[in-house]
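Incident review: delayed structure delivery

Summary: a single-chain prediction request sat in the queue longer than the usual turnaround. Root cause was a stuck worker, restarted by the on-call engineer. No data loss occurred. The affected request and its eventual output are reproduced below so the record is complete for anyone auditing the incident later.

Affected input:
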Amino acid sequence: MEYDGIERFTRMLRRARGIPQGPIALVLAEDAVELDSTLRHHLDLGFSRVVAVVPEDLPRPGFEAPRLDLLRAETRGPQAGIDIVNAVIAAAAPGQWLFHGYNAEYLFFPFSEDRGVADLCAFVAEERRDTVPCVTVDLYATDLQAHPDGVSREGAHLDRIGYAAQDRFDAQGRALERQQEIHGGLRWRLEEHIPPARRQILRSALFRAAPGLRLGPDHRLNREEYNTLQGPWHRSPTAATLSFRTAKALRRNPASREAMTGFDWPGSVRFEWRSRQLLDLGLIEPGQWF
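Output delivered after worker restart:
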């Protein structure tokens, strides 16, 4: 299906509230880089609907699929993508699982090659959890002469070390229960080029819609339990969004582009495009899900 504007899409969601749906993925296209591979990846994960949110000045996806929708809407700007996600949350049925990410970003979760995202969401819901915490893991090309935009699926690398977590505090300086700030990847190594508010890499990206729920510009939701890393009784599954977005931005910005010689360092390792590697590196964990 094709929708001309967010209002038409949200009207459809409201009309469909009584019809059970599996998890829905929103892919916000900021440019055309790896848009098709991003959409195919999330279709392969088993999302019941993958929505390509594409501005009018960008080409439509290069393929069609039964579970692929096209939504024409502006995604660029400080608040545009957040506003789209919040409009979808408000229109979706309570309990509807939603994922949001950008083009050239790929969701991985434990055993995602063999188990679908609906299986993961069902397990998490049985644990009385409404969210799957997602760490954003930077991907990058190491050969910037061959790939000047920093993007190469075939030559994708990630940082295997250099990640750290610290407690998250409220405005009164009190530690928030089961919440952490996680840092690492390009945003840590090249932090002088990243605004402080954008350096932490934990994102509320896969969650259940609820009345009044809203996503903020820091990618946190306005219900504190949705921002927790684990359940109060035992450890829960976590996921990762493997993302070229930071590499693209650093290469596109003239100041950072001129200041760096490359993304490669001794902690780089080639990404194998499988969840087992992320489990072995400790970037995701299965919790009680085996």
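Verification: The first helix runs from residue 6 to 15.
Action items: add queue-age alerting; document worker restart procedure.
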